Amino acid sequence: MKNTIHVERAIKRITQADLAEAVGVSRQTINALEASKYVPSVVLALKIARYFDKPVEAIFELEKED
Amino acid sequence: MKNTIHVERAIKRITQADLAEAVGVSRQTINALEASKYVPSVVLALKIARYFDKPVEAIFELEKED
DNA sequence: CTTAAATGTAAAGTTTGCTTTACATTTGAA
DNA sequence: TTCAAATGTAAAGCAAACTTTACATTTAAG
To answer: Radius of gyration (Cα) for chain A, nearest Å?
Structure first.
């Protein structure tokens, strides 16, 4: 599983803390997601995708090992 | 969080066990998802969506309480 | 350079996804 | 009606998501 949260965030010029607050999780959760330290729930993925106004698939991509 | 796995499965006329095997989880996991007993990871959601050839958003929908 | 904001990281704790085993109930085809 | 397949459900256990607190490092603006 890889994601482009870092990129989307750069485009919108938003901090990890901003995104965290917008989707209702802790800043560390966003940081860990960007570092691929774990896989989010589909609820969180949907909220992040909705925030960036893109489909889930545009931000979260399956890899072979998934 | 609600999902339409049951419906998609009915359209394709597949059993819970078939879907489970196709996406690499146990049959009980699919059963529990259909019963909304829990929220899947985005990896599992992506696999299910891909299996049904639809976007994640077409199968998994956020509700107010999410 | 200095300082504040942003990011990285870590540890301990709680909750929840998902598994396995096991059994009961429902459904559908012969 | 009978028998098998499909579904529902439950409990115990493990792994992973996510939280809070706390601190160190990097980045950027003045």
So the answer is: 11
Question: pLDDT for A2-60, tens place per residue?
Answer: 999 999 999 999 999 999 999 999 999 999 999 999 999 999 999 999 999 999 999 99
Contact pairs from chain A to chain B, CB under 8 Å: 61
The token pair at A27 is 């800043």
Spans of all domains in chain B: 2-58
CATH 1.10.260.40 for domain B2-58, yes or no, is: yes
Contact criterion met (CB < 8 Å) for B62 and A56: no
Give the Cα-Cα-Cα angle B48, B54, B58 (nearest 5 degrees): 90
Q: Read off the pLDDT band of B33 (50, 70, 90).
A: very high
Best of B42, B57, B64 to mutate (most A CBs within 10 Å, chain A): B42
